[in-house]
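Rotation project, supervised by the postdoc (A.L.). Task for the rotation student: set up a whole-complex structure prediction and record inputs and outputs verbatim in this book. Inputs entered:
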Amino acid sequence: MRRQLKSNKSIFLIVIIAIFTLSSYFFDQMAVRQEDNLRNSQIKLENLNVEIDNLYSISNQLTSISESIISKYITLKRKRNFWIKSLLLVTETDTPSLPNKVIIKSFGNPEYVNYMVKNRFIRNLRNIHLAHFEIDNKFYEIFSSNEMLFQKFMKNENGEKVLKTMMPDFETVFQEISSEINDKNFKKYNQISTTNSSKIRDEAIERYSLEDWLDLHKYGFILTNKIEDYMDIVEEEDKIITDKIDQKEILRQNTIEEISKDTNLKNTYILSSIISQILSLLFLLILFRVLIANKL
Amino acid sequence: MRLFRFTLLQSYFIFLKKHKSKALGVINLGIFLSIFALSAALISFVIEQKISNKQTELINNQIESRWTITSISQFENLMTQYHSAYENEDTKLSDKYLISETKLISRIENAHDFFSPYVYVTTKELETFAELFAGLEFEVDNFQDPYYQDFFNTVRSYYGDAHADNFIENVKEFGEMYKKVKKIDLEDYNYKKIPSLSDLVDEIIFYDNFHVNHSSKIRDDYFDVMLFNRAILYWGEGILKVYRTYDFIYREEIERLNNEIIDLSKKEKNIILITFFFQFIIFVIIQIFEVGSINYQIRKLK
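Outputs recorded:
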């Protein structure tokens, strides 16, 4: 029953059919593998999109902080000498060249003006502290939700990573100007600057000498100057974020090119598989033709 | 199994001697169709390459469009903040003009107190601004810079000549004010030194020398800074127009690419369908022979 193949042509055709059938399977497999690569690249692209959007959002938030710092800085800096000059003018001090006596006389209620100026003086100092706390809080909101990007602001505390404060140490700031300060008692001035208690304020209004007020003015002045440091932090961090955005943009462009290549390759494999199938069928038909024509 | 089927086919083909021309006709049809299918597959391959390239182009455009939209919203936000800050400053200045005419206030808050923080902050910001544009090799104060020329052309083509000419004027004014403000020495306005009591007393006594409403260098610098900030607002309006035009161009491009991809996909879908139809016919022809060979053997065995 078993017949031998008499023609080399037939053997050759069978080998060709086998090759195309095998290559069809091979291209199918390659297409499946390529699909995996493509999926990974697409996930990478999506992740990069999210990362870039996040970086833009951080940059935006830093711009908002910057505007807030600038506004606070201008307002407080404009008032840097306002209350001390007011105090010199509306209270009876021993500075002979000042026209304060004339000015005091022009007020309907000089006691109230005296009290009000000193009270506002203290409140202004409190506002300077509040500005520091508010800015620090804004930094905290951004940095704490993006810890990975702001590792340099992290510190270890009891084995846990916590965010450092951006605020200067008020006592260190006070020490910076200690040579210009009359009473070097930081606690005294810090308490009056941060208190909510009207009793403590009223006591200070009653007891403080001109030297004390001048010390308070100097402390407030240097604290206002320190607000400028936050602008430098924002500028530096914004530059870092912008550089990161640039790097990620390059990475995203590369990923898009990768996806494009992978898609091309996947489609090439799929179509190569179809072409191999068609070619194997074509050669099978040619084999049939040869077999019939040769009558074996 | 394949070899067994092939053996069956061999004996079947010998049997087909009588219907040789018919069989060859059918096989020739199959070969003809397979060449057709092959050409169709190659055409769909070419179409697929085109789709793939357009898809890459589309992704790039989508990303650019996304970036433009984000930039528009960021820039718009920034400009709103600038605008309100400028208006706020303008109101404060008007109030200041008036209350500085009272002796008490003119003694308490002088030109240095009022003008210097604003001048200092704007000049400091300008340094950052200048660094940013220097990094982009963009001469922001030169309206003839190629970036600007591109911007003007963009605005001209989408908004018309009047808008483009207005934009050019605003950029020129911005450039002039930018150069003026850049000349201001930041250190002149940092006022970091704590004034002594005698400094403060001098300021109070000689208040007329530092009066807000009297002309002085600090006052001139302040007005230059104010004019610069106003110029930023008009300059920003033009830049926003450029961004909006880019967004429009990207959206148009995305729509065009989408339509092209849909069109090519339809063509490819049809061609692939034809390819599979041809493949199916070829498969049926082959099956006719294979099934015929099996039936022939069954009949022979009976």
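Student's summary: Chain A has one domain: 8-229+276-294.
Supervisor addendum: The radius of gyration of chain A is 40 Å.
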